[in-house]
Amino acid sequence: MLRNNNWEKGINYLELAKKYLYRFNALSIPVSFVIHNNLAYAYLKMCQFQKVVTLLENFIYFCKDIISLEVMPDIYTSLNIAYYNLGNYEKALYYIKKAILLFEFQCDHLETGKCYLNYINTLRYSGKFKKAFEVLEKAKNGYKDVAELYHKFKIQEMILYFNIGMYEKVIELSESINTSLLSMRGKKSLLLC
């Protein structure tokens, strides 16, 4: 159902699976992590952010002694997105840092880079511009070899400069962006600057 974007049916099936996990005290098995992660993903798609928080924080509480290294970075990323959309930037920052650490531990360079985009956005929305610029510089230096991500970081830099009123810097940076490396969403973001 999730592959067909039938979120409501997917949620119903996943909720049923979750119910059986709790009934049979099977939260610590690997499929439990997958079910909770997929359910959170479906809730995110439906913009049900409080449900994501409730679901995943309860799950983490009950499974604090067991961790699935394959799934936990995604769970932490989902919590980051949910808290970000609920306006709780401190919790969003807490979870994105956890996701970054686990993706780095797994040597997943690309997913770590995507998390850095969330990290910078969350810092920006929380008004922590100095820290956002520091993280951005680290990310740009670490992703020079990944052209698409590197350009997304440059767009983030433009947005940061725009937010602090340094419009000349925005114009200067816009001239160095290779738009052919950006997704349609990235191109739209560039136009908004």
Can you describe what's shown?
The structure is a single chain. Helices cover 75% and strands 0% of the residues. The chain folds into two domains: 7-126, Alpha Horseshoe (Serine Threonine Protein Phosphatase 5, Tetratricopeptide repeat), CATH 1.25.40.10; 143-193. The radius of gyration is 18 Å and the shape is elongated. The model has no long low-confidence stretch (mean pLDDT 89). By secondary structure, the protein is an all-alpha fold. Helix 1 (7-23) runs antiparallel to helix 2 (30-45), helix 2 packs antiparallel against helix 3 (49-62) and helix 6 (109-125) packs antiparallel against helix 7.
Unreliable runs, pLDDT <50, ≥5 residues?
none
In CATH, what is the homologous superfamily of the largest domain? Tetratricopeptide repeat domain
Q: What characteristic shape results from the CA principal axes?
A: elongated
User: What percent of the residues sit in helical stretches (DSSP H or I)?
Assistant: over 70%
Tell me, rounded to a whole number, the average pLDDT: 89
Largest sheet: none
